[in-house]
C-alpha cells in the first residue's frame, strides 16, 4: 500500500503543471494500468475517430478577454523578455533541486525536464535510488519506475499535455478567457494586479507585481476534476538568454507548502536528441 501511495504521489508530480516541477492536476489517475490507448490529439483538436480531452474549449468559440486584463498580461510578458522570446524557444532543459514535504519527513531530490517543440517531453523525478520518468514522444505517453514501464491512458496524457503549456507561462494564456479583478495586497510588501483566466476547464488567478510587472503567484481553484486549492509562488527572477526566469518556486496546497524547488541548471535552444523521447519495445530509452 505504501508503495502504491508513493507511486501515485510521484505520478501527480509528473503529470501536473511542469514549469517548476510540478504539482499535479490532482486527479486519481483513472487511466493508470490500462491497456494500450490511442494517442491524444492536440488541445482542442480531435483526430479522425477520436475525441479531444472533454474539458478542452471549443476552438471555434472566441475567448472573452477584458482589455485591462490583456494589458496586464502583455506587460507581464514584456517584463519577462517578450512573447516572441518565450514562445520562440525550440528546446528547454531545466534541472531543479526539490524538497517534497508530502512524505512523513521532508525528502530532497531532483526534477529534470527536457522539452522539444512542438510537444516532445521527458521528465525525471529522483529521490535517492528511486527514479520516476514520464515521456511523451509526440504521440503517446509512458510512465516508468524501477518496476518497469507502461503506457498512460488518454486522460492522464491529455493532462500532461495541458501541463506542458505551463512552460510558456504566462504566454500560454494569451488565448484564454481573461478578466481583470483588482489590485491585491495579499503578497507581503507588494501590490499586485490580479487577473482571472479560464482555459480548458482550469480557472486560475494570476498576480503580477505592480512595480516590476513580473508574475508572482499563480493560484488554481478549479480544474476539470472539480474545486481545488493550489498555488505557485515565484521568486528570485534571473535572466537566462534574455528571458527572466524564477529560480525559486514554492508549491502550495490548502495553505501549506508541499514542494519547494530551486533551479540548478537551465538551458534554452540547446541540442536535444529525439532518442531521449523514444520508447523501444515498450521500454523507455536508457538515455
Structure in words:
- With 287 residues, the chain is of the alpha+beta class.
- The protein has a single domain (2-28, 64-284), classed as Clam (outer membrane lipoprotein receptor (LolB), chain A).
- It has four helices and 15 strands.
- The chain has helices spanning 2-15, 67-80, 83-87, 154-164, and strands at residues 91-100, 107-116, 120-127, 130-136, 141-145, 148-151, 177-184, 192-199, 202-209, 215-223, 226-240, 243-253, 256-268, 279-280, 283-284.
- The strands form two sheets. A 13-stranded antiparallel sheet has the order 6-5-4-3-2-1-13-12-11-10-9-8-7. Strands 14-15 form a two-stranded antiparallel ribbon.
- It is globular and about 50 Å long.
- The protein starts with a helix and ends with a strand.
- Residues 1-5 and 14-50 have low confidence and may be disordered.
Assigned CATH superfamily = Lipoprotein localisation LolA/LolB/LppX
Query: What's the helix-strand series?
Result: HHHEEEEEEHEEEEEEEEE
Helical stretch tally? 4
- What is the global morphology? globular
End-to-end span in angstroms? 30 Å
Q: Helix content range of the residues, please?
A: 10-25%
Largest sheet: 13 strands, antiparallel
Amino acid at each position: 500500500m505504501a508503495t502504491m501511495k508513493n507511486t501515485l504521489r510521484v505520478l501527480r508530480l509528473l503529470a501536473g503543471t511542469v514549469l517548476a516541477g510540478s504539482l499535479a492536476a490532482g486527479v486519481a489517475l483513472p487511466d493508470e494500468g490500462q491497456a494500450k490507448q490511442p494517442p491524444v490529439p492536440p488541445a482542442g483538436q480531435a483526430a479522425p475517430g477520436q475525441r479531444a480531452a472533454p474539458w478542452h474549449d471549443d476552438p471555434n468559440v472566441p475567448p472573452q478577454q477584458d482589455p485591462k486584463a490583456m494589458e496586464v498580461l502583455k506587460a507581464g510578458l514584456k517584463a519577462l523578455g517578450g512573447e516572441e522570446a518565450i514562445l520562440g524557444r525550440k528546446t528547454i532543459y531545466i534541472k531543479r533541486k526539490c524538497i517534497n514535504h508530502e512524505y512523513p519527513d521532508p525528502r530532497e531530490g531532483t526534477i529534470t525536464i527536457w522539452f522539444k517543440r512542438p510537444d516532445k517531453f521527458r521528465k525525471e523525478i529522483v529521490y535517492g535510488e528511486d527514479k520516476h520518468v514520464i515521456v511523451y514522444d509526440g504521440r503517446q505517453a509512458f510512465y516508468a519506475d524501477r518496476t518497469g514501464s507502461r503506457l498512460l491512458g488518454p486522460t492522464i496524457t491529455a493532462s500532461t499535455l495541458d501541463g506542458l503549456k505551463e512552460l510558456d507561462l504566462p504566454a500560454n494564456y494569451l488565448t484564454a478567457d481573461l478578466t481583470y479583478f483588482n489590485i491585491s495586497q495579499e503578497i507581503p510588501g507588494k501590490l499586485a494586479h490580479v487577473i482571472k483566466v479560464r482555459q480548458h476547464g482550469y480557472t486560475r488567478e494570476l498576480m503580477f507585481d505592480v512595480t516590476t510587472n513580473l508574475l508572482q503567484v499563480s493560484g488554481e481553484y478549479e480544474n476539470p476534476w472539480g474545486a481545488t486549492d493550489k498555488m505557485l509562488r515565484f521568486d528570485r527572477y534571473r535572466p537566462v538568454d534574455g528571458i527572466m526566469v524564477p529560480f525559486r518556486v514554492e508549491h502550495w496546497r490548502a495553505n501549506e507548502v508541499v514542494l519547494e524547488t530551486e533551479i540548478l541548471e537551465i538551458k534554452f535552444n540547446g541540442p536535444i536528441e529525439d532518442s531521449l523521447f523514444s520508447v523501444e519495445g515498450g521500454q523507455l530509452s536508457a538515455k
